Amino acid sequence: MGVQINPSILSADFARLAEDTAKVANADWLHVDVMDNHFVPNLTLGLPVVEAILKAAGTPVDAHLMIEDPDRWAPAYAEAGAGSVTFHVEAAAAPVRLARNIRAAGSRASMALKPATPIEPYEDLLPELDMILIMTVEPGFGGQKFLDIMLPKIRRTRELIGKHDLDVWLQVDGGVSAETIERCAEAGADVFVAGSAVYDGRDPGAAVDKLRALADQ
Ligand code: DX5
Ligand code: ZN
């Protein structure tokens, strides 16, 4: 598998989601940020909008749940058809059970770590997961500055995945752009979320191609 580029529709026009998702038909996944105004200080969208996107878009959906109580809510996103469902370990009461429930509902199970959350305590959970998301900003908003201090954690996570010989994807999210994506790739990330870097310009599809070319070296 080569690198994957996942545009974050948080930076799209919410009144024109069908058009804006069609502009990135060359992307691997659509990254959909669900925020509940409790786990993060921002409110975006929930299951009904994700279901509408699933119907409208031809690209698989990567649901990033920045919500409290993912144990209760995350499996419904898998049942609705999101191909990948990411919960935050800081919010999960029983992450192993939750990952198993997501997989049982037919989706890839993914676990996210906020910037201050280390990977080491979760080494033993890696076989239960299909992807780890290392946040490279504090979750909650698009357009923030990439945190370079996360690069060692990306490197360390790649080492742990390799140590156990697992096929776990390693995603980065926050401040990923033409300026920062090569550093992330070099550290071992293979799935790249980009919101403002894709949607703030004139041609989102071309931005996806450019990011892919930079990461795939
Ligand atoms: C932030 C979200 C990100 C956000 C990224 O909490 O999880 O997916 O949309 O936006 P950029 O790429 O602009 O940092
Ligand atoms: Zn996200």
UniProtKB/TrEMBL annotation:
- Mind telling me which SUPFAM superfamilies this protein's record contains? Ribulose-phoshate binding barrel (SSF51366)
- Kindly list the positions annotated as binding substrate: S8, H64, G140, F141, G142, G143, D173, G174, G175, G195, S196
Q: Which GO terms describe its biological process?
A: pentose catabolic process; pentose-phosphate shunt
The EC number(s) attached to this protein equal 5.1.3.1
Pathway the protein acts in? Carbohydrate degradation
Q: Name one GO cellular component term.
A: cytoplasm
Which enzyme type, at the first EC level?
A: isomerase
Active site: which residues? Answer: D33 (proton acceptor), D173 (proton donor)
Q: Does the keyword Membrane apply?
A: no
Q: How is the cofactor bound?
A: Binds 1 divalent metal cation per subunit.
Describe the function of this protein: Catalyzes the reversible epimerization of D-ribulose 5-phosphate to D-xylulose 5-phosphate.
Which family does the UniProt entry place this protein in? Belongs to the ribulose-phosphate 3-epimerase family.
What is this protein's record name?
A: Ribulose-phosphate 3-epimerase
